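Summary for the steering committee. The consortium agreed at its last meeting that each partner would contribute one worked example illustrating the joint modelling workflow. Our contribution is presented below. We chose a case with several input lines so that the handling of multiple components could be demonstrated. No manual editing was applied between input and output; the record is shown as generated.
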Amino acid sequence: MRVATFNVNSLRSRLPILERWLPGAGVDVLALQETKVQDQEFPLADVEKLGYRAAFRGEKSYNGVAILSKQEPDEVIHGFADGASPLWDTRLIAARFGDIWILDTYVPQGKEITHPDYEAKKEFLRRTAALIAARKDEKLLWTGDLNVAPTELDVTNPANKKEHVCFVKELRDLFAQLCAPLVIDLLRVHHPGEELYSFFDYRVKNALERRIGWRIDHMLATPSLAKQSLACWIDAEPRGWEKPSDHTPMLADFAD
Amino acid sequence: MRVATFNVNSLRSRLPILERWLPGAGVDVLALQETKVQDQEFPLADVEKLGYRAAFRGEKSYNGVAILSKQEPDEVIHGFADGASPLWDTRLIAARFGDIWILDTYVPQGKEITHPDYEAKKEFLRRTAALIAARKDEKLLWTGDLNVAPTELDVTNPANKKEHVCFVKELRDLFAQLCAPLVIDLLRVHHPGEELYSFFDYRVKNALERRIGWRIDHMLATPSLAKQSLACWIDAEPRGWEKPSDHTPMLADFAD
DNA sequence: GTCGTCGTTG
DNA sequence: CAACGACGAC
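What follows is the complete predicted structure of the assembly.
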């Protein structure tokens, strides 16, 4: 099985990229983030034309997650469904395919370390960790845009990002202590020590060619699923196409 | 020599259309209107890549005229240059190629017959007529978006346009008395009686296929130039392409 | 820099 | 319907 994650930064704006990329990518399950589309506006016909089904929850302008798949999922969950507020339905979606859970999150970016959104980001990560802990013996892949660069290897210039909400030490510590122990970072299993990025800021001129980016999108597997991991990689090509997202897809193959 | 006129409704937005249309169009001189670009933002590099030079005067958001040409013009004039205010530099540009003047105007639309802009429109037409009268024995082509549909043949439904600033009888009378006697309507020389339009409102669904439009862009030649007229036609194709202007190009061929 | 929003124009 | 400007988000 091949799984991919892609922060599309507007699904409707990215349909040409998906139409160019997906047919040849051999992807069985695709986790999308920042679809930025309300459910009644979701471009289901275009997705179906590409041979995929879709489970989704979005809102106008912001957020939005979707799981596209060749096969119908056996079960779909939106948000944390733990009764607590906020529900975060447009930032977390999970779908089960047989005994494998695909957990797709768009973790709040956090804006500034002094901003309430940064507190919400930490809360989101804590609740996600709790959710995974409850299924730690199951096969589960936590994927999506996590807005966390876990180590110094995961950003181009760590020195000038010490105050950044995706790299500040407090956040990395939280991630390392609460999240990382539950799951295995598949990109690092297959590519230890490599400077690989999944996000290249639009505002940085020629960021892709200059390799100025961030690794904030991830494929993190529970141990039982990690055993099946065959490969994990970032496909930087779509970032270089016309009208790209600022993120580029990441993929992982699993033995059946 | 082949001359064309095209109200692009934003030159920068229309570069893909120009890049698709111009290379095969065989145009020597192209009069543009509604470039909607300040001079310092004019996409000169793109125009030069297409093999053209450019004389232009534009402003932010509104108006803007340009004359693109394979050959460097011998002389360029902006506005009426008659000392009177307003100067209307971003609505009138003229370029001389040898003994032929190309006068490119974007005549004010006028908004409403009760609006001050409608008075300004009539004044613009009077001053243009005076300008042409002063050169009536020279070879001169008055082209551009004139925002005048001269006759009932030139709009789809004349009955419901009697109050429209581009068709109201007062305006047609002014045009017929002041402008028309000075020049020859080349489209009508070559296509008398045909329902041909150069403008199709974006707001009218499938206006092109339903042939609901206006003939408000023109090619009007002084008698000495009209003698050289070989053909004149509207190319409706670009109106059907992706991200079109609401106008479509009009062309004219002249014997050397 | 490229998204989305809204209100304004023709 | 498709430009524009302004704004907010990342």
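Chains A and B do not touch (no CB pair under 8 Å). The helical segments of chain A are 15-25, 44-49, 116-133, 169-179, 186-190, 207-210, 223-226.
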